[in-house]
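QA checklist item 7 of 12: single-chain prediction sanity check.
[x] sequence parsed
[x] length recorded as 234
[x] structure emitted
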Amino acid sequence: MAATQTAGTYFSRPVRPDLLQRAGTRLRSRLVSAGMSAADATPVARSVVSTARITREYLDGIRALLKARGPVAAGKALDGLRRSAVRLREQAEKMGPALARGRRDLGNGEDAVALMEIWYRAGSPEELTAEGRLRNALKSTLSALGPVRVSDLAHLACLWADAQRFHAALRGILRAGSPGSSGGAAFLEALGGFLPDHVVPVDLEGLPGDPGLLDGLPAMVARLGAKVGRSRTR
C-alpha cells in the first residue's frame, strides 16, 4: 500500500472494526498452529484484538488533533490520546506473561526474515517521510496554541507510525493462506517489539530526561489551560 502523501493520513489502513469482531478466533487458531499453547494463545489473541481497537482510537485521536482549531478542541483530543496511552500500557502488562511464553515457545524471533516481511508488509521506505510530515503538522497545529516540546511531538508521531505497522502485521497474519510457524512466530515477535519492548518503555514511559506520553500528554493539556481528569497510569 502506498505511503502517506499528506500529513495525518494513513500509510496503512487499520483493520476494520467488523473484521476485528471475528479476528480473535482466527488469530488464536493461527497461533496454536504455529506452536503456541492453547492456554496462552487464547489470552494473547484477545489482547491483540483489544490492542487493535485501542490503536484505532489513537489513530482517530491524531486525526482529531490535526483538525483542532482551538485550545478546547485540542485539549479534548490530547486527553483522548492520553486515555489511549494509559490503556495501551495496561494492555501490555495484561498480556505480558502469556506473550513472553509464546515468543519463547515459537523461537524468540529466530526467523528475522519472516519478522521483517510481516511487520513491514504494508509499508514502504517512505514511512519515515510520512512520520516527519505528521510531526511537522502537529507542531504547526499545537505551536499556535501554546508551547510545544519537540520530544512530545516525536513520541506522538512514532506511536502513530507503530500503530499502523501493528495493524499491517495483524492484517498480514489474518490474511495468510496457511498458518505457518514462521508467520506466527514473526507476528508474536512484532507484537513484542511493538508493546513491551518499544512502545511502553520509550513512547509511553519515556527515557531519563525525556518524559513519554503518559506524563507528556497531561502536561500538554495543562499548557493549553485545560484541566486533566485523574486516570490510573500504573
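[x] summary fact logged: The two ends are 37 Å apart (CA to CA).
[ ] second reviewer sign-off
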